[in-house]
Write a structure and sequence with these properties.
This protein has about 650 residues and is α/β, with parallel strands linked by helices. It is built from 20 helices and 14 strands. The structure holds zinc ion.
Length: about 650
């Protein structure tokens, strides 16, 4: 087989004759191939995965008419890639698929006849006409070879897609130029003349019985042309990951490239935009987007074939893209996409302007197409801008894809007639009802209006929350309320109890600690002082410890008289302290047991009287406070009972618990 990547005869050198297509709806535009191998030998080895490549050196002829002016869409782009693939020995393992010119009929499955006619005419225009016409379009240059190269580039992608569909190869790489994804239905744009991927997609669907196509566009730029070609088509998913910058990055259509552009009519959700708000995104951000959005949607869609608009201008070192995707990152994305559609995957070159970056990136993809594992990535650690972008995409797309967890937490997501119920309110109501029916505990009426608003019927819940969404997955969520264990023990010993349970809230009020302290003072003054119990035990847990220390400071003499024991379980929170005043701090040291995990940073500090008597407990390391309460329960109550027994009868004592 002739492997010359840069033959000089100008003739096509592809030596593979495709197998007869299983289904065709018409035989027009079929190309007669020069035959190098018998089709029988292909049939015999059909079960082995094969990787195709399309390349034709004549695609270099399209160039800037001002030959001394360098243009980033450099004809060398495809030759450096081809040389890299050849020099590493990969080309020997690939099946060369012949490029050929797209026909008018094929191109016009996407483009208008006017567009086809205009491109055709450029072959015979004078230099002045070429310059004048190019200037009328957005980021286009033309010469007399442009039309031929554009037809070859587009036809090359079609041929590779056909070879994948008919089983000649399993997957493949189209090393073609000019690129395609900016080309609009009726005009060239952004270095693109015909929309190669869009035309190939329509050819497969019209002529080769392909129903559903998944197009993934990882070029740094949004593929405006491809998106528009399929915007209302429910059988084509167009998914683009691109630099967006609120519409300031090329092609600069703020509405079209945002995550809010989702497809129209029957095709809502079939356009998926992942718009990066800035440059500098890395492998981590792309892999995160793949894991959270691209792959779940691709599996749910279940395409017949996957085509990648494989620009390499998001690659590390690209002067235009300024992102940092490494060859390994591109390899991993290719690897993931190979799992879809029976492995039917085509990568078609789009942009990419650093010759070194694009050749290394393309090689990494080709190696994965050939069956090599992608090289190892570092730990995936997406940045905050990535997390927020993905959150917005999921929030928008979850209405159309079951695989994406619905994220409705803002009031604007409500549909008319839907009631938004606050989970914390729901749990408070449940808890109040339960405490009454089980233990006849009743809510303490709070005469203070402000306290009443904030603290009436407080409940505590722990739920399965998603790190990027703050949403609660109700089916996986349980209310773990350790308080019941304590209530049962205390009531079982015929003691009284005041239970104060404050759930953590997403937006912690600024004066949360002061409010909680005010609540405890209110309860002390109105319930404890009023009923005058002989003995009081204070138990604090979590954030509540600090407010409890505040109560001790505010009601010091009354507390020193009545409180026989204080137990503080701050968990990972700060260790509270009372006033340094000698009588109070001395009392607190002998009265208060502070139970701390051995790895609490507090142990590195100097422990003072006003911190109480602190105990280091290995078992509590990294344990949630709720679990600490269960773990310490038995020891704590044997300690409490000892104090109560040694100090006299306990029937009239109250225990106050603050969590
Ligand atoms: Zn690009």
């Amino acid at each position: 087989m002739d492997m010359d990547i840069d033959g000089t005869d100008g003739k096509p050198y592809v030596l593979i004759e495709p197998r007869k297509l299983p289904v065709t709806k018409g035989s027009r535009n079929r190309v007669n191939y020069t035959n190098g191998e018998s089709s029988n030998s292909l049939l015999n080895t059909f079960s082995e995965p094969k990787t195709g490549i399309v390349y034709d050196r004549r695609m270099r002829y399209h160039g800037n008419i001002h030959e001394d002016e360098h243009h980033p869409e450099d004809p060398k782009r495809i030759t450096v890639i081809q040389e890299k693939i050849k020099n590493t020995g990969c080309l020997n393992k690939m099946v060369l698929i012949k490029a050929r010119e797209v026909s008018a009929e094929e191109a016009c499955l996407v483009h208008t006849e006017d567009h086809w006619d205009f491109v055709t005419k450029t072959a015979h225009m004078s230099d002045n006409e070429l310059i004048k016409n190019a200037d009328e379009y957005n980021s286009i240059y033309l010469n007399n070879e442009t039309a031929f190269c554009a037809r070859l580039s587009c036809g090359g992608v079609i041929e590779l897609c056909k070879a994948v569909v008919d089983g000649t190869v399993t997957n493949g790489f189209a090393n073609v130029r000019p690129p395609g994804h900016h080309a609009e239905i009726n005009e060239p744009m952004g270095f693109c003349i015909f929309n190669n991927v869009a035309v190939a997609t329509q050819c497969l669907r019209k002529h080769y019985n392909v129903e559903k196509v998944f197009i993934l566009d990882w070029d740094i730029h949004h593929g405006n042309g491809t998106q528009k070609a399929f915007y209302n088509d429910p059988n084509v998913v167009y998914c683009s990951i691109h630099r967006y910058e609120n519409g300031h990055f090329y092609p600069g259509d703020k509405a079209l490239a945002n995550y809010t552009a989702i497809g129209g009519g029957e095709a809502k959700g079939k356009t998926i935009n992942i718009p990066w708000p800035r440059a500098g995104m890395t492998d981590s951000d792309y892999i995160f987007a793949f894991n959270k959005v691209v792959m779940p949607i691709a599996y749910e869609f279940s395409p017949d074939i996957v085509i990648v608009s494989a620009g390499f201008d998001a690659a590390e070192g690209d002067p235009i893209g300024e992102n940092h995707v490494t060859p390994s990152g591109f390899g991993h994305m290719t690897h993931m996409l190979k799992t879809l559609a029976n492995g039917k995957l085509i990568l078609a070159l789009e942009g990419g302007y650093n010759l070194d970056s694009i050749s290394k990136s393309a090689l990494a993809c080709v190696k994965v197409l050939l069956g090599e594992p992608p090289s190892k990535l570092g730990p995936i650690n997406p940045n905050q801008d990535c997390l927020e972008t993905i959150h917005q995409v999921i929030r928008t797309q979850s209405k159309y894809w079951n695989c994406l967890a619905p994220v409705y937490y803002a009031t604007e997501d409500r549909l008319p007639g839907q009631l938004l119920v606050d989970m914390a309110e729901m749990l408070k109501m449940y808890r109040t009802r339960n405490l009454y029916s089980k233990y006849k505990l009743i809510p303490v009426p709070l005469s203070d209006g402000k306290l009443g608003q904030r603290f009436t019927n407080l409940a505590c819940c722990r739920a399965d929350t998603r790190a990027t969404s703050n949403s609660i997955n109700v089916s996986n969520s349980y209310m773990i309320d350790t308080v019941y264990l304590y209530i049962e023990t205390i009531l079982g010993n015929n003691h009284g109890i005041i239970d104060v349970d404050v759930p953590p809230v997403v937006n912690q009020p600024k004066n949360e600690n002061q409010d909680l302290k005010d609540l405890l003072i209110f309860l002390w003054d109105n319930l404890i002082e009023a009923t005058n119990p002989k003995k009081v035990i204070l138990i604090g847990a979590g954030r509540g410890c600090r407010s409890l220390a505040g109560l001790i400071n505010e009601r010091d003499y009354s507390i020193m008289e009545k409180v026989v024991c204080t137990i503080m379980i701050p968990g990972p929170n700060e260790v509270p302290s009372v006033s340094k005043r000698t009588d109070l701090s001395t009392w607190y040291q002998s009265n208060a047991n502070v139970l701390l995990p051995a790895n609490h940073p507090f142990w590195e500090k100097k422990i003072k009287r006003e911190h109480g008597t602190c105990s280091k407990i290995e078992d509590l390391n990294n344990m949630p406070v709720q679990d600490m309460l269960v773990h310490l329960h038995n020891d704590m109550f044997s300690h409490i009972n000892q104090i109560l027994v040694n100090g006299g009868p306990a029937n009239s004592s109250n225990e106050e618990r603050n969590n």
